[in-house]
Specification:
The complex is a heterodimer of chains A (54) and B (521). With 54 residues, chain A is mainly alpha-helical. Chain A has one helix and no strands. The radius of gyration of chain A is 19 Å and the shape is rod-shaped. Mean pLDDT of chain A is 77; it is low at 45-54. Chain B has one domain: Sodium/glucose cotransporter (Up-down Bundle). The model of chain B is unreliable at 517-521 (pLDDT under 50). Chain B has helices at 10-30, 37-42, 49-60, 63-76, 81-97, 101-107, 112-120, 122-139, 143-155, 160-212, 214-225, 240-257, 259-267, 271-304, 307-313, 324-338, 343-378, 385-409, 416-440, 446-456, 464-470, 472-479, 485-506, 514-520. The chains are: A mainly alpha (54), B mainly alpha (521). Chain A binds chain B through residues 2, 4-5, 8-9, 11-12, 15-16, 18-20, 22-23, 25-27, 29-34, 36-38, 40-42, 44-46, 48-53, and chain B through 30, 33, 35, 38-39, 43-54, 57, 78-79, 81, 84-85, 88, 184, 187-188, 191, 194-195, 198-199, 202, 205, 214, 218, 230-231, 269-270, 272-273, 276, 280, 283-284, 286-287, 290-291, 294.
């Protein structure tokens, strides 16, 4: 028999922790990508480029 | 609407006003970057991984999502978490396999009907475009009402007329913003909204757990829902067929078939980014259900301890009252009572940002589909960029007016999530067949595509007012079983796939143009 309360508790705590870390990373690096996006559109650069991680 | 107290103050109104004005200013600022339809619709295909993750999550973590997910937590307890699980796991699988989205990105399509055009011909593109836009606009028909119920419940505007006034103000704000900036402004709003709402929801959860205690929350679900509040397969709660329906809709469709998600995949700069986007966004897809569902459960727990509210939200048999518009308001009422002054303003602003973010994405999406997949092909593709942009903006305003009228008139009659899934099914049941079989089966044909798209229209039978209108009960009596939204949706999906196969086998394509044969193979 599945212990649903434990399943949902573990799911909730682990997901919230991962999301909190992800939110911080995406906030910081997303801001950098916005600058790049506006610069890229302004230059009329429509070519497929490299990933921001590269 | 229930008359419940709120901590929302003038300071919070000030925070919300500053936020909204700031957002409109962003729209005005980025308008100068828009030069063509590609900039307007897919931001010049120049979006990189982290911004794509923020904007994908921001767009999908809308106020409406938060409202319907919270409602499911309120009415279903912890069992509702199964929706979050499938919503998170499926995009992760898509990220690793590239299922559907990578071939679409490879083709460089901006809309799904554009793919229909390449694979099945322009006739299917126009037909699919009309169905997609109609289902999509119907699908967002309750957005305004959900937004207005949130605002009025959170702020304590309890007169029924306030809901209508708030709906009008909200749609005006969204229209101004969306018509100005297109996808670039949408992406930037999505980013801001991602930041505010992510941290706002995390904070709200922390405050809720701190005030209520985990043990009390579990006990409340046990008291109201019993085992069905924890076990999603329990037939007294969601049941197996509903879980299968959610796997299809909240999992596969919302991440790969739904046009707004596909537009995000089309906006990124390479196939590698598409895969990264889906892997990272899987956390966002999971969280967009999980956090609001948990807050819905917390709202249930909180109101059980308040006799006046308990009488309002719980029926005499101890279960949750069967009134979708009332249960939808439980979550914002709860936020209005547990969050302190100032924090409510920030969370409220985040939610409004979420509302605008979703609304502008969807308005832009459906207007683009009508322009690119219906009007332009019918005119032989002879439309200038200027005409397309102008028409898209006019359509956005017209759709906005329709949404206001629909929100005022349509009686919801079922949980918001179920309304959205079944109205979306009018389009996605056919689209699923066309995309999956079109991409992965060489034998898929034009006639099969028409048949599958047409079958999707049967999904309207899942809408409660339609069922009441046609006397759906007689069919249920005849079958000797109750037919839920999930049953209707799963049946229509299977029918569309079957007709696609049958139509393709009976009427295979002959003499396709060279480029279409190339895509088909």
């Amino acid at each position: 028999m599945i212990d649903w309360i434990t399943v949902w508790t573990v799911l909730f705590v682990s997901s919230v922790t991962i999301f909190a870390i992800m939110a911080v990373v995406v906030t910081i690096r997303g801001a950098r990508d916005i600058k790049q996006l506006l610069r890229s559109i302004e230059k009329g650069d429509r070519e497929d480029g490299q990933d921001s991680e590269k | 609407m229930p008359s419940l107290e709120t901590n929302f103050s003038w300071l919070d109104w000030g925070i919300v006003a500053c936020y909204l004005l700031g957002t409109v200013a962003v729209g005005l600022y980025v308008n100068r970057f828009i030069r063509n339809m590609s900039d307007y619709v897919v931001a010049g295909r120049a979006v990189r991984t982290w911004l794509a993750v923020a904007t994908m999550t921001g767009s999908e973590l809308g106020l409406v999502t938060v409202m319907f997910a919270a409602q499911k937590g309120f009415t279903g307890g912890f069992s509702a978490f199964h929706i979050a699980v499938v919503a998170g796991v499926v995009p992760l699988v898509v990220g690793f396999t590239g299922f559907i989205v990578v071939p679409l990105r490879r083709l460089g399509v901006m809309t799904i009907p554009q793919y229909y055009g390449i694979r099945f011909g322009q006739g299917v593109r126009v037909y699919g475009g009309i169905l997609l836009a109609a289902a999509g606009i119907l699908n967002m028909g309750m957005f305004l009402k959900a937004g207005a119920i949130f605002v009025t419940a959170l702020t304590g505007l309890n007169e029924p007329v306030h809901v209508n006034i708030v709906m009008t103000v909200l749609i005006l704000l969204v229209l101004i913003y969306t018509t100005l900036g297109g996808m670039v402004s949408v992406i930037i709003t999505d980013y801001i909204q991602f930041v505010v709402l992510s941290f706002g929801l995390l904070l709200a959860c922390a405050i809720a757990v701190g005030q209520l205690g985990w043990g009390t929350i579990v006990g409340a679900v046990q008291e109201v829902h019993g085992e069905a509040g924890f076990n999603p397969a329990h037939e007294g709660g969601f049941g197996v067929s509903y879980m299968a329906w959610m796997l299809l809709t909240a999992g596969l469709v919302s991440s790969t078939i739904w046009q707004t998600a596909v537009m995000r995949a089309s906006s990124v700069e390479s196939e590698a980014v598409v895969r990264s986007l889906y892997k990272w966004s899987s956390v966002g897809f999971l969280i967009r259900f999980l956090l609001p569902q948990f807050l819905g459960i917390c709202a249930l727990t909180y109101f059980m301890g308040h006799p006046e509210a308990r009488a309002l939200f719980l029926a005499t048999d101890g279960g949750v009252v069967n009134n979708p518009e009332l249960t939808m308001s439980a979550f914002p009422h709860f936020l209005g009572q547990i969050l302190p002054v100032g924090i409510i303003g920030i969370v409220g602003a985040g939610m409004l940002a979420a509302f605008m973010s979703t609304h502008d994405s969807y308005l832009l999406c459906w207007a683009s589909v009508i322009v690119e997949d219906v009007v332009a092909p019918l005119r032989g593709g002879k439309m200038s960029t200027r005409s397309r942009l102008l028409l898209a903006r006019v359509l956005i305003v017209l759709i906005g007016i329709f949404l206001l009228v629909w929100s005022l008139w349509y009686p919801l009659g079922q949980d918001l999530l179920d309304y959205m899934m079944i109205s979306g099914a009018i389009y996605f049941t056919g689209a699923l067949a066309l995309l999956v079989l079109g991409i992965y089966w060489k034998g898929a044909s034009r006639v099969g595509a028409y048949m599958a798209l047409t079958a999707g229209g049967l999904a309207v039978l899942g809408l409660t007012p339609v069922q009441e209108l046609i006397g759906f009960e007689r069919l249920e009596n005849w079958l000797g079983m109750e037919l839920s939204t999930a049953h209707v949706g799963l049946f229509v999906t299977a029918l569309a796939l079957m007709l696609m196969v049958l139509g393709s086998l009976l009427f295979p394509d002959k003499g396709l143009p060279a480029e279409e044969r190339e895509v088909a193979s």
